[in-house]
Amino acid sequence: MARPATTEYASFYNNYINKTNVNSVQELIATYANTLNNFFNSLPEEKADFAYAENKWTVKDLLQHIIDTERIFTYRALRFARKDTTPVAGFEENEYALNANANNRTLEELKDEFVAVRKATDIFLGSLTDEQLMQFGTANGNAISVNAIAFIIFGHILHHKNILEERYL
Predict the structure, then answer these.
(1) Is the pLDDT reported for residue 1 higher than 90?
(2) N or C: which end of the chain has fewer CB within 10 A?
């Protein structure tokens, strides 16, 4: 299955999909899974509560956001791959962050959760057939393919990895 065509997702996802440099879901997993786990597992404890500016998320908030977003997008992919065409609502990331209590958790707990969620996502995405990857659904009022969702999941993590490298570490 090739990279998603621009007709498979809303244009505001271009930034995430363009962060990836591979041509299939299998290549996403093979190329990025270990690299991302290694990067996030290497986040230093002394930066856990750091925010680069006032009213910005801490490293722990950011990691929790990545985890929550991956869970939401994987859920969407599961529904659409199983031919459930019931539209799925969007989510407000800032409300999730306010109510996640990430700063009451340890960075180590968040890292463990990140690795577990990533592993579950990779196993799920790796199990999908080409037919399942080409299934469409509606999320946040926009048509999207399962294939595009897979690329968005990885692109979203890569986006935040870049932010961490540029502004936090």
Answers:
(1) no
(2) C
